[in-house]
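step 4 of 6: structure.
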Amino acid sequence: MNILVCIKRVPETGARINLTDDGRAIDTRYLGFTVSPHEECAVEEAVRLIEKQGGQATALTLGPDEAEEQLRAAMSIGVDNAILLATDGREWDPVATAQALVDAIRDREAEQGPFDLILFGNESADAGGYQVGVRVAHALGRPCITGVKQLSIEDGRVEARREAGGGWEVYETSLPAVITVKEGINLPRYPSLPGRLRAKKKPITRLEPTWFDGGLEMIRMKTPVEEESQVTILGHGPEAADKAVALFKELGVLS
Amino acid sequence: MILTFIEHDRGKLNESSLEALTLARRLADDMASRLEVALIGAEARALAEPLAAYGAVRAHLVEHAWLDDYAPDAWAASLAQLMAATSPDVVVAAGSERGNEVMARLAARLDLPLASNCTEVATGQPFRVTRVRWGGSLLEEAHLKGSPALLTVAEHALAAESISKPPEIDVRPFVPTLTEEDMRVRVVRRVEPEREGVSLTDARVVVAGGRGVGSAEGFAALEELAGLLGGAVAASRVATNNGWRPHADQVGQTGARVAPDLYIACGISGAIQHWVGCKAAKHILAINTDPEAPMVTKADYAIIGDLHEVLPAIIQKLKS
């Protein structure tokens, strides 16, 4: 199976997010970077599928040159090669992002044959547009199942499950297909040291797509106003148990 | 005209659609525009008339033999055809899983931009929207340039609000033309929930554990407390990533959003990704060894101490 997995470099945020002075970006001076959680699982799913069924996996990202770090991370757990669509740090909206991905996918498919499966995360951790995977699938004319938390593929048949109200909705389609996954579909592995070393030698194709205005232009970001809360310390250690039970009574949650 | 897509599952209304409809009605007032709604599938018929209470003057009932269950491409194709017939200026849907999905497919078909999960919209050329980033930890002000403007409304960003003098609502059928291709992706069957007991999103009390719990076994005390309070157990991303709990228990940006009467956060530091999942709780009690942990400073109540000592003491008190 020939699999493509699309990922995005995002900052690793902690207890709060600080913005730059102009509000157009997150202040990342003191932050590390990672891929969005859903995509971490998409990479793991791609690797599991080729381990079981053979074939190869390619990782694709649109981002600054530093996003090579996330492509290497994907390759360190078993992705074979990667494509970096290098940007100059400008914000790309979902329409422009999808178009750049589609162009790169078409070029790669013209050279090396079609991808049987294209995996995305359901939505990115930062922009959360919920649409790039859907747009890419539409442009390529392939079926797209979103929000998948269980995936099985046999003889070109796809069964995908989506969580719904504690149960599952079951979808079926056939390859080639586009699937957007959610965290929980698997538990991603940690890269091994030999894996990291191998990843350094794997090929990355670097392309420079042309930015265009896709119609959704970010002006600035801001932190939402949250109600100030004043914490009441009930006590320290096990001695606070009485106060806790009194609180449960007061809040009416004792059944 | 402003068209709002009203979402339902086999006839059961998704309440988030009423929030979206409320935002759409305010926008219609600002633009001196008509408010219409679209409902897909025969089972939605009964939902149409009550929408007059939210200001809708016309309901389009999109009916077709293939639209009985969820088929996102067919739903998007139906909306695209309805738009061609009615020429709305704005199309609005809930920022729910299905709302975002159907609107993304619609936007892809029409080659239009889509602003997902908006909290505010101001009319103009272009439309100015405020939308959610990082699951709600940040807001983004953006210009939305497409025409018609497509947007979804972040869930729980505003309260649904009916109006004092509901208009007459005109309900009319719309029959789309669907192709085999529109039906490639659809729900072919369902697996009903296996779990017993109260579900995480319905529970009045949620007892959640994070890094401080330390192991899968460590959750036994949380289970016991949840049992005594008739609540559900939840976990932070650290706990599910370590395999201590199944992912379905996760609260946060990549898990469930909960709004119980009481959220008891045990050994959870309170990273924003977790906070966005639990901040809607009426009351939060944090149990943590670190008095400076964000979960403690943002909580309503806190006990400073080791959850492995505090929880057994609370359980003992509750039993006696």
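step 5 of 6: annotate
 - The first strand of chain B starts at residue 2 and ends at 6.
 - Residues 70 and 187 of chain B are 6 Å apart (CA to CA).
step 6 of 6: archive
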